[in-house]
Amino acid sequence: MSISASTPTAQPSGEYQPSKAMRGTADLLDSRVGVGKAVRFISRKIFPEHWSFLLGEIALWSFVVLILTGLFMTMFFEPSMTHTTYPEDALPVSHQGMEMSAAYASTVYMSFEVKGGLLMRQMHHWAALIFMAAIVTHMMRIFFTGAFRKPREINWLVGFTMLILGLLAGFSGYSLPDDVLSGNGLRIADGVAKAIPIIGSYASYGLFGGEFPGTDIVPRLFTVHILLIPGLIIALVTVHLILMVVHKHTQYPGVGRTDNNVVGYPAFPVYVAKMAGYFFIVFGFIALMGALIAINNVWNYGPYDPSPVSAGAQPDWYMLFLEGGLRLMPGWEVVIGGYTLSLNILIPGVVIPGLLFTFMAIYPFLEAAATKDVREHHVLDRPRNVPVRTALGVAWLSAFVILVLAGSNDLMATHFHLSINDITWAFRILFFVLPVVLFVVTKRICLGLQRRDRELALHGHETGRVVQMPNGAFMEVHKPLTDHERWILVAHEAKRPIEIEPATDRNGVARPGYRADSFRHKLSRFFYEDRIEPVTPAELAAAGHHGELEETGHHAEGIRGGAVALDHFPSTTHGSGDAESAAGGSVATLARSERR
């Protein structure tokens, strides 16, 4: 039903009334594509409130900045390896009349002669670094809190694929200027491709269109960088957001938060307004970095020449692990049947990255196999309550960090006046030892924190206030927990190793599937054999028993301080405190809320 503009309406003063054009547009969209149902569905979605959920938004808005700045640069960049001479009247002076490729010339010209060109280049590069950092941090948050569990396994794989595409986007992007740094990166890629057994030389020829460096690699990387990878990332981001809406958002444990609800704010107008504001914050921060912090000044390196190799040249941080692995690996080669297998390149360039990323991709399915849990999970885990998962994540990160640091071993040697051989050997040892040590230490820390939580749930906060009982014993007054604190400490489930049936039945016949069950049982024991049982309701009820003590005319409530309940004490008023405590029972128990 349409409303005439001249028809008065009984509208309260100050209420927003959309214009006729807006109403007509909304009606057109709703009647043609059913946008009204989608808007109602999305606007009513509830999103929880926590700062760590912004990590995904940082990645999203950084990608938007990448798209915007990339569109600007495509108007001036020339993806060609054709030889040219830099103009005699263009900056910088050191490049005037120098022979170079058209790709390098257009990059330098864009930086010095195009208004805003250098700002766009540096914003694009900083946005790429922040984009990858946000993806890695976001995935680590998902990993440590268990947000990958059913029904989000597919979404985990979608995010993992975006991580791989981000690595490829970064590699293809910083290889485009055809300067010395990017050329060295392409030379490494050529070496890794040729190290692959049997198909290595064919892979290299196919990638470069002939012998390295060829004349086709920059145009091919340009197509991949601006068309193929962004298109795939946009598609995966869409799938990622759709699955997040369909599965509903995960939430941290707290009072009233269960797997059947979401406690938070509606998408419209609260969350939409926050997302819009956060975009401008991210955009402004990247613009500030692009304007004030120089990065990737290609004119300092010069055009690529395959003959020299520059010292102190490192790729961006997210590709530095590959450089570090190549620097740590000894020069091992194996000749098999007249064929030379370059282990010094194959292992750090293919095997180690394959193991690291394969572990990340399949971990949700390994944990599901260890638990046989088919339920949906929407409340996140506290990392301390899953010690093996947390320890594995820390071990994985330590191996990655060691490789990243090893990629700068030459800079460490020159800046700290150390032997590069000593640094290399230290990193070689740490790569194998540090993950194991950190796994053990992290697991023990998590178990220790669980024990502390158990004591805290049963007895409350220590106050440091010591009182003397009528019988002469000294007791510490404990402060009770709030409902929110108690919920967090006791709400998690007990996870135990799964049980399997014997290898044979009662007739001695081998049971089919026993080997698979045995592997799953061992995997489950690895995850959950060492554990701290969470506080049970019965233990909370026993610890929260209230009462008053009357002894020689004194009341216990004066000693409790409103926080501690004293069950009972020996009838004697003098003697050994330890003996009397042992005879008496609980002396500091949790004061449970009586509002239940």
From TrEMBL:
| Protein name, as recorded | Cytochrome bc1 complex cytochrome b subunit
Cytochrome b/b6 C-terminal region profile domain ranges (all copies)? 254-448
Q: Where is the Cytochrome b/b6 N-terminal region profile domain?
A: 25-253
What is the catalytic activity of this protein? a quinol + 2 Fe(III)-[cytochrome c](out) = a quinone + 2 Fe(II)-[cytochrome c](out) + 2 H(+)(out)
Keywords of the record: Electron transport, Heme, Iron, Membrane, Metal-binding, Transmembrane, Transmembrane helix, Transport
What PROSITE patterns does its record include?
CYTB_CTER (PS51003), CYTB_NTER (PS51002)
- PANTHER family for this protein: CYTOCHROME B
